Amino acid sequence: MWVSLAERPLRVRQLCQALAVRIGPSRSTDLDRENIPLIQTLLGCCLGLVVVEEEASTVRLLRSTLQDYLCGHPNIFHNAHATMAEVCLTYLNFKSVRGILSIDDDEWIPPGLPFLSYASCYWGVHAKKEITEPVILLALKLLSRYQCHIASALLFSHYDRQAMESWDPPHPPGFTALHCVAAFGISELLVDIDFTGVNQSDDAGRTPLTYAAANGHEQVLKVLLDQTDAGINYSDKLGLTPLLWAACGDSEEVMRLLVERKDVNPSLTSKWGQTALHLAADVGNKGIANILLSSWADTASWLN
User: What angle do CA 7, 10, 120 make, to 5 degrees?
Assistant: First the structure.
């Protein structure tokens, strides 16, 4: 399940540590290193269908045809993505993981927690695909202290490595729980989220609205736009507004939501002078370009 459905190839130590996490009624409260399997045990249990790439130390299936087969038969693994999300969230709520922001050296991810980066950056991707009540409860537990959790810094780094280079632990990068939910697009978590920070910018100048628009999350974007004084024209440090980010994406529904707003300003440009139409043309998205052109014809301000 992990080898075939992970969002990126897992290294040996990452995979073995993920397999050490217990979920369900006997859920782990901290990492039990005695429960981490040896890679030799893992390979033996998989009967030769899983191999290790020696150069990168990543684990993969023996044949690409096996990968195609497993991806084509998703019911082979019961609640696979929900299970993976639950493992990631259980890991992030470990006692040994909380409080890691106190580290202030160059290697601020402890070497003893190799699964930390994957769990931080992809728990929401798995939860978006399949969510259960245990996943919701664990996610809300993490999000309740998210801005001061190492997972916040790691996910922010995943989206903006350049901005993260200037990060100074333990100062958090301003990436809040609402930023996280908007980036992953998990609308089920919005029920218990505080919306007072709907216009709060992270260290890259991006608001939750920006992340929802950039990643094409229509349902979350609708909720955020319904908030009083939602900053639909806020720009980040690159001069990109939610409209400009949406023009770089591939969600026509998100673009329609934005252009239909009377308070959206289509005249705003990036720091390089690009309009939304410029960006849509650059990425070759004909559908979004047509939506912009149609709105352009009906909006006098676009003609100035």
Answer: 60
